[in-house]
Amino acid sequence: MSAFASVSCERVRARLDRLLDHGLSELEEARDRGHLEACADCARELRARRDWRRAFRTLDLPSDEEFAWFTQGLSERLAHAAPPRPARAPSVAWRRIGAAVALAAGALLTLALIDAWSGERPIEELFASAPRPRLSLEGLEVPWFDGLRFGGGESE
């Protein structure tokens, strides 16, 4: 599709509803209908809009009396309704709990490291009861670091 054709398509598609409503001048309507005969995409769009309008006309819409009943006093009810509550931020209590847990974990880790550096017990003994990781990095090669290997030997 050429740039001229795409501009023409944009112009015609922007005016399809006016074409269906017979709101174009005779010259504009003749020009757009000529484009629609030559352009399958725009013709397809016109058919889709015409079908949509036809389907909309067949809807069983409420009568004026039914619609009036629904809207009667609606603005009054909305005026007296409670305003919506703003979204709640995370509770301050949860933030405090998270900070306390992080502080306690940091304190325990600090005490464990001080005890290990004192030399009285080896660090392996200190963490003997800790769960062991299931992931082994032995033999893993990291290609973006030349010669870096985890476990199983020295780097080359």
Describe the structure.
The protein is mainly α and 156 residues long. Among the domains are: 3-57, no CATH class; 92-131. The protein is built from 8 helices and 2 strands; from the N terminus they run H-H-H-H-H-H-H-H-E-E. The protein has helices at 3-14, 16-20, 26-38, 40-57, 64-71, 74-80, 92-117, 123-126, and strands at residues 140-141, 149-150. The chain has a two-stranded antiparallel ribbon. A hairpin with a 7-residue loop joins strand 1 and strand 2. Helix 3 (26-38) crosses helix 4. It starts with a helix and ends in a 6-residue tail after the last strand.
Strand content: under 5%
What percent of residues adopt helix (DSSP H or I)? 55-70%
Distance between the termini: 59 Å
Low-pLDDT residue spans = none
Strand order of the largest sheet: 1-2
Order of helices and strands: HHHHHHHHEE
The backbone outline, from C-alpha atoms, is: elongated
Mean pLDDT across the residues is 77
Number of strands: 2
Radius of gyration in whole Å, from Cα?
37 Å
Number of helices: 8
| Strand-pairing-aware structural class | mainly alpha
Largest sheet: 2 strands, antiparallel
SSE map:
Elements: H1 3-14, H2 16-20, H3 26-38, H4 40-57, H5 64-71, H6 74-80, H7 92-117, H8 123-126, E1 140-141, E2 149-150
Antiparallel strand pairs: 1-2
